[in-house]
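Protein in question filed below.

…
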Amino acid sequence: MPCQRRPQATSDTPREDLFYQTYYSLSQQYPLILLLLVIVLGICVALIATSFASGRDFSSNLGFLITLFVALAVFGLILVLACIEHIFQRCTRIFSAVIWTCLLTMGYVFVFTGGVVSPWDQVSFFLFIIFTVYTMLPVGMREAVGAGLISSLSHLFVLGVYLLLGKDSQAEVALQLLSNLVIFVCGNLVGAYHKHLMEVALEETFHETFNLIQSRVKLESEKRHQEHLLLSILPAYIALEMKAEIIERLRDGGQAQQRHESANNFHNLYVKRHKNVSILYADIVGFTLLASECSPKELVLMLNELFGKFDQIAKDNECMRIKILGDCYYCVSGLPVSLPNHAQNCVKMGLDMCQAIRKLREATGVDINMRVGVHSGDVLCGVIGLQKWQYDVWSDDVTLANHMEAGGVPGRVHITEATLSHLGGAYAVEEVCCLQRDLYLRENKIKSFLVVDPRAEEESPNDTLSPVPGEGYKIRASVRMTRYLESWGAAKPFANLKHLDSLPAEQAGFVRNNHSEISLGSLNQQKTLERGRAPRSPDEELEGVDEKFFQLLEQLNSQKQWKKSEDLNRITLYFKEKSLEKEYRLSALPSFNYYTACTFLVFVSNFLIQILVANKTEALGISYGISFFLFLLLLLTCFAGHLAKCFLKGPKVLYWVPSISAMVCTQPWLRVSLGIATILVVLTMAVLNLFFMPENFSCLPLQNSTSVDRNVTRELVRFNSLFSVPYYIYCCILGFLSCSLFLHMNFELKLTMLTLCLVVYNVLFLHTHSWLSDCYVSHLYPNQTALRPGVLKEPKMMGTISFFLFFFTLVALARQNEYYCRLDFLWKKKFKKEREEIETMENLNRVLLENVLPADVAQQFIGQNRRNEDLYHQSYECACVLFASIPDFKEFYSESNVNREGLECLRLLNEIIADFDELLLKPKFSGVEKIKTIGSTYMAATGLNVAAGQDNQQDAERSYTHLGTMVEFAMALVAKLDIINKHSFNSFKLRVGMNHGPVVAGVIGAQKPQYDIWGNTVNVASRMESTGVLGKIQVTEETAKALETLGYTCSLRGVIKVKGKGQLRTYFVCTDTARSGPQAPMLT
């Protein structure tokens, strides 16, 4: 259904107000005004049919009938125009004014045509006008109050002036006009209260609907976030499986995973074998010296730009980057989908990397180069461990590719014979004769080749460093590198998290959000594509919500709202899901006490009317006395909770009374019983005293009576107050209205009560007590042969038509109310469910991000305290770095059929790493941050969770505390490995190296963001492990001194040669003796 586009709003509040007006118009006002027009047309037809069927003379009812025919034409035209929805939206106020004016005109025509004008004339019709203005016309509360007051006061004024100036008894007229005033006041109050209830209910439904749509948009956004984040770590084929496990773990608190693991005795292994792939290893020669001259920001920027460039080259050559190890970069072609040209892809990528570094060297004069090794074969690829997931590859072929890089030549691509066989002569090669560069290649007699770059002949050879013009010599090499690399414009890590919503929904990968409950449609394709090209601004995100909201509004009009709901039965409006229906019926209703209070207003109105116009009999006093007592008990039951303080001040016997109020709101059986009792009291008292009217007279035909008889009869009529008959009818109509006040009462119950009342009242006034109406008509029309009253001038006919008029009106309203009460309940349920899904997605995002980054670093990217365009880097003055490896695992690993070509070996490694990761969950190791795993080597660090400069504010002894934590962690790793050895019948030993000092931490890589640490401290820690001894923790002299201040004992190993560092004095940490000294308790 077409909707007018909203004007631009300056804030969320005006925007929601505009939405609410559209929602209110389409969901409530539009269907109700159509129903009102149908009801009015039906009444017009019924009046015309009744007028002719009763044999009334056409000429004597000419004005009445002409008015009805004109009304048919006018309301029929309005109905046709209102069905054209865009006309209705533009002319809503005009339609309302025309309908109200026509109804008011009809009412006055009915008053002054068809017979004698009486004070009770058309009170029910004006009450209908007043009630429908509040409940069915598309006007605001102020306009409704104004129209209701004008309708009421105009009737009172016109009839008051017309009748009080006549010859009738002014006392009777005054009493009847006062009764009319009571009826109109009650009608206005009931109408206003009903409108208020509906507006509150609709506003709640609107906000639930709006929140639901916003939550769906956010849920879709969260799903795209977690998908993109997961895909930045893992390939899609393995990400699906891992994501499902994380969601299951989040939903049941990890119980499912524990049950699965206890059943299998192993952690889940996400590793698969791929054949016919090519592996590329690349190392930047000379980068270590360059990095030592860089500031933390320069280092992170330089690495991000370099590896960002390599990522782009990998993407262009259909390669997948696996991992970054310091300044080493390795990738694979042929994953996850096999490629026939995988070897050519890797060789082409290696040549492109060498060319990029060559251009960098020529432009900056910095002496760096690229050494690349490529081998083709099979790999096991996947993820091991529980924390800090990184997609990795394992196999003997991977090991060979690594050694191909180590034994390569700077500036050249070094390939094996296996890779050469896949090239198909695409590149010229030079055979490498000298194998002394790498021991592994020499021992395994690997035949290798250097690829000749076809572009090298086209470019002028320039092996010497290019001079830097101007003052270039005065600028540090790192600064020259940084300035040049910035021109490459590599993407920043996680920059996509800010603008992820710019991705078109149909390109969102493997995550799909399928809500079948309510179809929201799809956005315009052109707009979606336009928004997909550029980052989406907050205003555009709001527009996305707006579009979905307008699409939902299209399904809330009268033609669709019941027909197309997949949750509700079209006829009964029951929920199709039985559990949902039961929950709806058992839901609490806090506003029930106000329904009862408003019904009491109707009851008091009926009492005042009958006091004014009915016979003052003992039955009247007794019946209302009992009824008031019952009503007060009902009100006390409902409002006992509001009077709790009063009851608590009284005797203890009454302390239980306030709890009744809560029971009424929460117990459906009690609430329904009290609601029925309340309505039945009002409906019964509306006509009860009609049965006690005196029957000791007969209505003599006044035209054949003498003057004495007429006087006697008139006195009897006056005495018996026959003019009260129409007012009993009006009391019944007010009783009808009391049913509509219980907004949340089930439709079938309202329908039953209204139908029962319709039948009883019609039987009463048309059959058992019709003589009262006939007697009153005989009094008003002494000569009925000459003048017969019109249809609406005869009380019993007027009453029957009014009963049917209000019956159909109230049934339509009850149906509408029932629908929106159920819709509101359904929206709340869906919103709650989707809110839980959003929380699950938010937790999933957090888990995923914290599996890539440390928790405090992750907050920098998902929080509001950092722009995602910035690179994250942080320097730490005193961090402790640990490398723990299992050298024996290389010998244990074999690719035989027995262990499924190495898969079972990796399963054991996964158990080892997973058990190591579980240690991180212990509170005493909360300061330990896992960095990565490199094959069978575990890398961790402490001292990274302190703010920059915090170390300087602490004394040296306390700043070394985290070194003790790392030693304890290393000892825990050794103990954990011993347990694994016991269960797996192995004899693995851990070789541990530690060092402390300054490090630089940062996040690099846009395609696969990776957290890492760099610095001389890291390099030395790695050397401490590689030159260490099995079962020992080797540390540098500085670290040994720091540990001794914490109470640890270190034994001198001696002076050893360390690659790149020369001769270093190292120590072993004694783990078999407890710490001594006063510092020992510090860790506890």
Remarks:
- The chain is about 55% helix and 10% strand.
- The first helix runs from residue 12 to 53.
- The chain has a mean pLDDT of 78.
- The radius of gyration is 44 Å.
